[in-house]
């Protein structure tokens, strides 16, 4: 497969540290937005977004909420152990694990793990006027992570409350600074709802209530999905070719309303962020799999699967397969997982326009941009670098219209 032979170095550019936005602008909508439309480029302010869209456009937001995923423990020796909660293990469901009241298991990455052998770590935390003892114990070790049991001695509090009180905002490592109190608000979209992400869907960080209201006044429609963003989103492609890079798996939830909205507005789908892109494009291929196998039970897209599936199925037919599946079972929610990697050579099935930030060199996100607008990604990034755009999570925005 020639797609797998894509060389990582071809998707590299020089990003100096001074171009990386270490902090967000005070007013979200004052960020710059680069407008790429059929090869032409101009820059505007993000508050100009409503005038950059058409009245028949449908914006799709990812309403995942970032959790305070980093927990800091101190050993009696003084050694600092940082535990980064990646995804639920038991219960495996996000909603259920946040409601646990005694203990739960998480897949985690541990910082300074050499200093932590088999002993249980203990941290004294306070929620309101309650002193709580939070314990962490390693249950097992995987290749790149550990399964850790968290337990606490007050069943009146859920793990969601434990994290909210004791956890630290997991800002991206490339900011090269410690999380601050302000990050709790600014590293969160204003429309975030469902807890589960360890990284923000950063394209949404520019939206304000005023911008969203103005979109509505223009008649531009919106719809929501949930994809919980994993830490793998920051994982650089270190291999010479893309074939050797392993994508992380992310879980997503879509509603019957979203499927109806997509069917009604095909050819006018505006994805807010690459997380929404991955979800929307995965939906098409899940529809193909349902069409091929009506008794399908494994709702997961593997990394290279979409390049191996052959289908002439239209987008509306694929989405209708999911719609009928949900209606037949009288369910309003559809849960699935995706490991999809979108690289040059991929043919988009659902997404027509993309709102996104500027991404790291040699990242899978940059490869997705290159798949969406072709080699013009170089022109876009060169323009942004020369015209003082701010890069990465807290940086400026772009709207890409092929």
The total count of strands amounts to 18
Strand content: 25-35%
Give the CATH superfamily of the largest domain. QueA-like
Q: How confident is the prediction overall: mean pLDDT?
A: 93
Query: Fraction of residues in helices?
Result: 10-25%
What is the CATH class of the largest domain?
Alpha Beta
Query: What CATH architecture of the largest domain do you see?
Result: 3-Layer(aba) Sandwich
Q: What's the number of domains?
A: 2
CATH overall fold name of the largest domain: QueA-like
Give the overall shape, derived from the CA principal axes. globular
Strand order, sheet with most strands? 2-1-18-17-14-3-12-13-16-15
Distance between the amino and carboxyl termini: 25 Å
Structural class based on helices, strands and sheet pairing: alpha/beta
Molecular structure report:
- The protein is α/β, with parallel strands linked by helices and 402 residues long.
- The chain has 2 domains: 2-65 and 186-401, 3-Layer(aba) Sandwich (QueA-like), CATH 3.40.1780.10; 69-168, no CATH class.
- Helix content is 24%, strand content 27%.
- The chain has 11 helices and 18 strands.
- The chain has helices at residues 49-52, 94-98, 159-166, 183-186, 209-218, 256-264, 274-292, 305-308, 315-328, 364-373, 376-386; strands at 32-37, 40-45, 58-62, 64-66, 70-74, 80-90, 103-111, 121-127, 130-141, 146-152, 194-197, 221-227, 250-255, 269-272, 300-301, 333-338, 353-357, 397-401.
- A 10-stranded mixed sheet has the order 2-1-18-17-14-3-12-13-16-15, covered by helices on one side. A 6-stranded antiparallel sheet has the order 5-6-7-10-9-8.
- Strand 1 and strand 2 form a beta hairpin.
- The protein is globular.
- It starts with 31 loop residues before the first strand and ends with a strand.
- 40% of the residues are buried.
- The model has no long low-confidence stretch (mean pLDDT 93).
């Amino acid at each position: 497969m020639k797609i797998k032979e894509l060389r990582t170095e071809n998707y590299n550019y020089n990003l100096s540290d001074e171009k990386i936005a270490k902090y967000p602008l005070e007013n979200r909508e004052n960020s710059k937005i680069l407008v790429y439309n059929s090869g032409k480029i101009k820059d505007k302010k993000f508050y100009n977004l409503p005038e950059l869209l058409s009245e028949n456009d449908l914006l799709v937001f990812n309403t995942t909420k970032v959790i305070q995923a980093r927990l800091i423990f101190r050993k009696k020796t003084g050694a600092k152990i940082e535990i980064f909660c990646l995804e639920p293990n038991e219960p495996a469901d996000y909603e259920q694990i946040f409601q646990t009241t005694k203990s739960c298991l998480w897949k985690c990455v541990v910082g300074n793990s050499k200093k932590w052998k088999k002993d249980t770590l203990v941290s004294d935390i306070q929620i309101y006027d309650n002193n709580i003892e939070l314990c962490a114990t390693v249950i097992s070790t995987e290749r790149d992570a550990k399964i850790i049991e968290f337990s606490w001695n007050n069943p009146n509090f859920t793990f969601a409350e434990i994290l909210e009180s004791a956890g630290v905002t997991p800002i991206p490592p490339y900011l090269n600074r410690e999380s601050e109190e302000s990050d709790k608000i600014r590293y969160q979209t204003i429309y975030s709802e469902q807890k589960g992400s360890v990284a923000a869907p950063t394209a949404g960080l520019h939206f304000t209530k005023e911008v969203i209201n103005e979109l509505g006044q223009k008649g531009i429609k919106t719809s929501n999905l949930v994809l919980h963003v994993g830490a793998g989103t920051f994982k650089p492609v270190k291999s010479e070719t893309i074939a050797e890079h392993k994508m992380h798996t992310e879980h997503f939830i879509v509603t019957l309303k979203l499927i109806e909205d997509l069917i009604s507005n095909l050819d006018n789908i505006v994805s807010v962020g690459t997380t929404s892109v991955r979800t929307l494009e995965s939906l098409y291929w899940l529809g193909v799999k349902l069409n091929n196998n009506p008794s399908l039970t494994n709702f997961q897209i593997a990394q290279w699967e979409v390049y191996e599936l052959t289908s002439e199925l239209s987008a509306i037919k694929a989405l209708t397969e999911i719609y009928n599946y949900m209606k037949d079972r009288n369910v309003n929610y559809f849960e699935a997982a995706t490991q999809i990697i979108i690289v040059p050579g991929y043919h988009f099935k659902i997404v027509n326009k993309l709102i996104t930030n500027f991404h790291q060199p040699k990242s899978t996100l940059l490869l997705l941009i290159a798949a969406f607008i072709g080699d013009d990604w170089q022109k876009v990034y060169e323009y942004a670098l020369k015209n003082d755009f701010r890069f990465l999570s807290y940086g400026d925005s772009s709207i890409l219209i092929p």
